[in-house]
């Protein structure tokens, strides 16, 4: 009789954590490139599915500093379930500081929810779940403003809206009790990860214009989020790299914190209306504060960060171009 354990399927028909080998085997048997591993506890198994390193598995990764932002992509080998190849280069590469981060990186999960897409009275909410060891409260909030009359309503309530998630990221950065410590923000939204790993570098290179020459519709919120990242102490005073990283995780595969963030986002969408915010003004105020206090990274639109994502989770060039031109994200 097999010993009890938790079977983590990182790559298979249905990735997730299973409590019996027969259930896990059904997901990997005959599946080309299947990646799986057995663990003694659920937390380690969930971390493995999520792509996190654990004491029971070995990883070999390195980071690449892209022209604007750092992208660290992982590909799992079909021959060794615990070995990962070096990252794939997606952008022009420059040298990185290579400075090791001190201490264990803290982790937080976020998600967004919308109801009544495209209709009058559409509502949207966010959920934030901090992992153990972080002295901060989880969040379940409605997005600010009366969405049915707000000119950002359609973007807020889009089923694949990144605006909800950008607001969630901003709230995480506002509530983080220790901005001096590294923090990894996890999201299962492909579009959100694409904003930070692919769109922002392109928009900055074009002076915040889309590929068709139009303005980036939610530039104010993006710049505010970047200003919050820039206000954090950099691991290297001579570098533009912040202590923030983003990680793409899989949705609905048994990651408890991610599922809880989804639940809190659904609840948040139906909370009372809150006052809208002037993110353009808040971004300027934050940049002025950074300059005045002479700490953090001077320019918000030049701050760099890491993004961890499997190659298969990135949008194609065609998808990026279409979404960018239509501002449909």
UniProtKB/TrEMBL annotation:
GO biological process, one term: DNA replication, removal of RNA primer
Source organism, top-level taxon: Eukaryota
Protein name in the entry: Ribonuclease H
Gene name for this UniProt entry: BQ5605_C022g09456
Cofactor(s) needed: Mg(2+)
A Pfam short name: RNase_H
Database matches in PROSITE patterns: RNASE_H_1
Span of domain RNase H type-1: 102-270
